[in-house]
């Protein structure tokens, strides 16, 4: 079996006395998009920074392709997109991307060509030579994605990439990540938008209180709550159905049977339900 492009075993990291990541195991395989899901403060960003080779773990080990990862080599193969793009705002998107290309060893002409290619890809060409401070939050996110892709990374780590993006940009982001994975890279994306993540990812890793948890199966079936007229809310029935079309057919069948329905509600996506189940286990 091909070893994961990047994996971590027993990573931990504290800030002073506070243990942000207690024990994190994760395996990121070529061609796969993995979702990293967890509540605020769970340790997701800290884990992503360690996986990117940007923050040293206190203990645990990182492996790239099955052998112990060298942080410098890891950084050269990794693209990192932080949740907030806040640096170098007086520079233009072209200058920022060229600078990052040069940091990755490209000559000026190659870095310039790559910068323009990426600005095209994330639809920011019209802002190529304007200061980045004038970009909106969503545009800055798109520039952050371009910056993460400068070195054509095999390992792409994204922290809340869709926050601030408009619906079209989100759809494009999904397609771009899928295309990047299809070329053999691995993508790890943290997000709180579970419905959206569910459409994007192949695998999910949950994180709570500094610990990672891999669900035994990735739940994919959403659930609906059905309550009959006069039925107390706590006695409503919950059914799992494949998708909205299956729900519509099920509802039509109930109506044809003259079932006295008071409520028929999609309650959560499968991923949301798994998350709530995990949270319930922990409280
Ligand atoms: N540099 C730091 N110094 C001190 N504490 C930190 C530092 N970075 C993170 N922490 C703390 O570690 C914990 C985990 O933070 P982290 O940013 O990894 O969580 P997260 O899961 O990404 O949260 P969110 O979903 O809110 O972005 C938090 O309690 C945070 O305050």
From TrEMBL:
Pfam families: ABC_tran
Coiled-coil positions: none
GO MF annotation list: ATP binding; ATP hydrolysis activity
InterPro entries documented for this protein: AAA+_ATPase (IPR003593), ABC_transporter-like_ATP-bd (IPR003439), P-loop_NTPase (IPR027417)
Source species, domain of life: Bacteria
Presence of the UniProt keyword Iron in the record: no
Keyword Flavoprotein carried by entry: no
Domain ABC transporter per the UniProt entry, residue ranges: 6-234
Record-linked PROSITE patterns: ABC_TRANSPORTER_2 (PS50893)
Keywords, alphabetical: ATP-binding, Nucleotide-binding, Transport
Family recorded in the similarity comment: Belongs to the ABC transporter superfamily.
Protein name per the record: ABC transporter domain-containing protein
Organism (species): Gordonia spumicola
């Amino acid at each position: 079996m091909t070893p994961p492009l990047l994996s971590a075993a027993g990573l931990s990291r504290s800030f002073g006395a506070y243990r942000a990541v207690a024990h994190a195991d994760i395996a990121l395989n070529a061609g796969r998009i993995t979702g990293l899901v967890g509540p605020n403060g769970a340790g997701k960003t800290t884990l992503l920074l360690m996986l990117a080779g940007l923050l040293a773990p206190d203990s645990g080990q990182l492996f790239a392709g099955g052998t112990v990862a060298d942080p410098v080599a890891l950084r050269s193969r990794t693209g990192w997109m932080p949740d907030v793009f806040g640096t170098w705002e007086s520079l233009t998107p072209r200058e920022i991307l060229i600078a990052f290309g040069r940091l990755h060893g490209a000559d000026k002409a190659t870095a310039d060509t790559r910068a323009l290619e990426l600005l095209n890809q994330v639809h920011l060409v019209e802002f190529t030579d304007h200061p980045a401070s004038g970009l909106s939050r969503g545009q800055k996110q798109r520039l952050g994605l371009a910056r993460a892709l400068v070195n054509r990374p095999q390992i792409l780590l994204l922290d809340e990439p869709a926050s601030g993006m408009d619906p079209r940009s989100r759809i494009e982001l999904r397609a771009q990540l899928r295309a990047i994975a299809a070329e053999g890279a691995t993508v790890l994306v943290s997000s709180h938008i579970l419905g959206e993540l569910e459409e994007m990812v192949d695998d999910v890793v949950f994180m709570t209180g500094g610990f990672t948890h891999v669900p035994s199966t990735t739940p994919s079936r959403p659930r609906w709550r059905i309550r009959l007229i006069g039925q107390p809310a706590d006695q409503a029935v919950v059914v799992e159905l494949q998708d909205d079309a299956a729900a519509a057919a099920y509802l039509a069948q109930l109506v044809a049977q003259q079932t006295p329905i008071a409520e028929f509600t999609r309650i959560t996506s499968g991923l949301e339900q798994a998350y709530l189940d995990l949270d319930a286990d922990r409280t």
